[in-house]
Amino acid sequence: MGEFTDKVKGNVNEAVGKAKQKSDDPETKAEGKQQEAKGKGQQLKGEVKGKMGNDI
């Protein structure tokens, strides 16, 4: 179950981050890049959990 949750959270953060990067405000763009990177990290975490088991 942790694998699925991490992947969903990652997808949401990545999508929101991409949307924020379309802003004209440089601060919001930077925030969007960080949020997108966080989402990619969460997705990777979910993949690792899937391959190694949810016990990690």
Quick overview of this protein structure:
The protein has 56 residues and is mostly helical. The protein has two helices and no strands. The protein starts with a helix and ends with a helix.
Describe the fold and architecture:
The chain has 56 residues and is mostly helical. The chain is built from 2 helices and no strands. The chain starts with a helix and ends with a helix. Helix 1 (2-20) packs antiparallel against helix 2. It has helices spanning 2-20, 26-52. Residues 21-39, 46-56 have a biased composition (Basic and acidic residues). Residues 1-56 are annotated as: Disordered.
Task: Kindly state the percentage of residues in helix.
Answer: over 70%
Number of strands: 0
Low-confidence stretches: none
Alpha carbon gap, first and last residue: 12 Å
Helix count, DSSP H or I runs of 4 or more residues: 2
- Average pLDDT confidence is 92
Main beta sheet, described?
Answer: none
- Content-based structural category: mainly alpha
Categorize the overall geometry. Answer: elongated
Strand-and-helix sequence, N→C? Answer: HH
The value of Rg in angstroms is 13 Å
Strand content: under 5%
What's the arrangement of secondary structure elements?
Layout lengths: L1 H19 L5 H27 L4
Considering the chains and any ligands shown, give keywords for the structure:
CsbD family protein, mainly alpha, YjbJ_sf, elongated, single chain
